[in-house]
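Entry:
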Amino acid sequence: MTQEHGGAASRACGSCAYFGAPGLESRGEDGTCRRYPPRVFASAAGPLATAFPKISQRDWCGEYVEHNPSAGVAAGSRP
């Protein structure tokens, strides 16, 4: 879902603890959502493959968790 809400940019995927794009964050590139395990799908390379959902840093969802590297764990993370 593309983020279009004024003032909600700080809660976009690019600043979420689950955003997976090591080394890419500062370059404004897309990444993957690591909130849940990879999804399984049929692949031309074989019977099954797995991948995390590809997302834009500007996307957003209702499960945002603030990225806080100094805390060592995601703020507000769930057990």
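Confidence is low (pLDDT under 50) at residues 1-6.
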